[in-house]
Specification:
Elements: H1 2-16, E1 28-35, H2 42-61, H3 64-69, H4 75-81, E2 82-88, E3 98-105, H5 107-116, E4 121-122, E5 127-137, E6 140-142, H6 148-152, E7 165-168, H7 174-182, E8 204-210, E9 215-224, E10 227-236, H8 245-262, E11 265-266, E12 272-279, H9 285-294, E13 299-307, E14 311-318, H10 322-331, E15 334-339, E16 342-347
Length: 348
């Protein structure tokens, strides 16, 4: 009886605090560096930080074509989008020539701004992509050894925009070498379940790099956000004597980031609703569930429709695709199931 009363109190709190205010938001831009020689006073410092922060945010969440559209947004409009800012202490003792600013954009205002510009943003935060780059050079295949891309892909990032994605390699094994060697004349048809995890919800990409100093061709095949992906790309040498491997790496990371963004578009003009049976095992589970929903940008609001001592029936208003909100809930520590046309969730 006491537990039921306690749950009732929690439900009342949920009704009152159903509008989500995210603490850690995708619209937060941290560690904006401003050269101390670039400004004379605090106002100039903030103006520079606002412009750099706005550009940094857009480069992180917008497709390239939309990023270009907003390049010339004036400072007045940018200021209207900012909730607040924070000047933080530069802890890098080796480089004290910069001021560090954290910038917090208002989610609702960003939504309205993008909608007016007919722009949709992408949420690739926390995205993990397992890849295997295979190099073809002079009709010879290189997988692990003597493969510049395998040896350098995970090293220091060559392009700051690629920081949105965490890359992983599958375990090195002889079976993978044998599979690729046996299919060297038709690499495009390889069953990727034999190379990557068989879990179709995990993102992976098999990358074939057919190098030529004048024109290098690429074949990408895999799964991104539960969607099967096949892409053919090419990079042509226009100026230098040959295409450098490092330039290819920059090109590939940029194209892959654009590809991942395109599969994680958030349509802010069309919200969706998700009804979840949330299992209650402990009296504080609803508090924890509320905290999880408050941390997810995609969630607009939520409310409890009904409850008993075993579960709470929660209605969630969110933006984006169902797979994306499911992915976010799992990242936050929930076990999600879909059975008999009903979504259920519980804490792990």
């Amino acid at each position: 009886m006491k537990n039921i009363k306690f749950i009732f109190i929690i439900v009342i709190i949920l009704f009152k605090t159903g509008n989500v205010l995210c603490v850690e938001s995708i619209f937060t831009v941290n560690n904006i560096e401003v050269d101390k020689n670039a400004f004379k006073n605090k106002e100039e410092l903030i103006n520079i930080a606002f412009k750099k922060g706005f550009e940094k945010l857009n480069s992180k969440i917008l497709l390239e074509k939309d990023f270009i559209k907003l390049k010339n947004t004036n400072l007045r409009n940018i200021k209207n989008l900012v909730s607040h800012y924070q000047i933080v202490k530069n802890k890098d003792q080796k480089n004290q020539n910069f001021e560090i600013i954290n910038l917090y954009f208002k989610r609702d205002k960003m939504y309205n701004f993008y909608s007016q510009k007919n722009i949709r943003y992408s949420d690739v935060s926390g995205k993990i992509l397992k890849i295997l780059p295979v190099l073809i050079l002079n009709e010879e295949i290189f997988i692990y050894d003597n493969n510049f891309f395998y040896e350098n892909w995970l090293k220091k990032k060559v392009d700051k925009k690629t920081e949105n994605i965490e890359y992983l390699f599958p375990f090195e094994n002889l079976e993978t070498i044998e599979i690729i060697k046996n299919n060297q004349n038709n690499l495009e048809t390889i069953n990727l379940n034999n190379i990557f995890d068989k879990d179709n919800e995990k993102d992976n990409l098999f990358i074939i790099i057919d190098y030529n100093k004048e024109k290098t061709k690429f074949f990408l095949k895999g799964t991104i956000s539960s969607k099967k992906i096949i892409r053919n790309l090419s990079l042509t040498n226009k100026m230098a004597e040959k295409i450098e491997y490092r330039d290819i790496l920059i090109f590939l990371k940029k194209e892959i980031l654009e590809l991942v963004k395109s599969q994680n578009i958030i349509d802010i003009g069309t919200p969706s609703f998700l009804n979840v049976n949330f299992s209650l095992k402990n009296i504080n589970d609803l508090f924890l569930f509320q905290n999880i929903l408050n941390e997810i940008d995609l969630v607009e609001n939520f409310n409890v429709r009904e409850f008993n001592n075993k579960y709470a029936y929660v209605n969630i208003k969110y933006y984006g695709k169902i797979n994306k909100i499911k992915e976010k809930l799992i990242e936050k520590g929930l076990k999600i199931k879909f059975k008999n046309n009903q979504w259920s969730a519980r804490l792990k």
